[in-house]
Amino acid sequence: xxxxxxxxxxxxxxxxxxxxxxxxGTPRKGQPRYSPTPTNMKSHWAHHKIVRTTAYADDxxxxxxxxxxxxxxxxxxxxxxxxxxxxxPVAPFFTLGTYYAAGRYFYVHRRSHLDPEWGRKAxxxxxxxxxxxxxxANWCVTRPWFDYLMGTRVISSADLMESNPLGIKLPSLVxxxxxxxxxxxxxxxxxxxxxxxxxxAINKAKGVDLPMPGAELEAGAV
Length: 222
Hints:
The protein has 222 residues and is mainly α. The protein has one domain. It has a two-stranded antiparallel ribbon with strand order 1-2. Strand 1 and strand 2 form a beta hairpin. The protein is globular. The termini are far apart. The relative contact order is 0.14. The model has no long low-confidence stretch (mean pLDDT 93).
């Protein structure tokens, strides 16, 4: 049964990696970004453009599989879970955990963009991913775990910030010692967190809005 929670941690790490390197791609000077999955990157940039102009909403999710971006997302999740299915004979609980993680990813992501107010409150790290001045940050969707570990959580405001690094509602008796322990064990993480928050506040005050990921393609870069 230990495989199930391991799968959840693995899925969150993969979520961070795939979002950063596959969906956004690696920037290259004077050239379009590189992604080994260019169709996924194109789909994701289209998603960003829509969300940025509709206050975080993406009605494409209401169309279901008729929408090519939704089909692309579902297909990607099915491919990933097909891969983990190969491990079922030796790691059944790990495999089941990846099924759960994939299903929860689609549910949470879809609901957040169909109900922006819910999304803003339930997964503020993803709201910040789309609505901050810098959209190349806040890579996690379901939970912010690896954004904290990797120093890529950029908080837009204190009132929007999750109350603990797990991004889970916890009783205060548990949450307070957890936050204290996290700051004690990961001091550099929280230093970066504050630095990122200050940078975002400065950008907002100056009206700075960094280019949307993939904008170099629209500008005609080759």
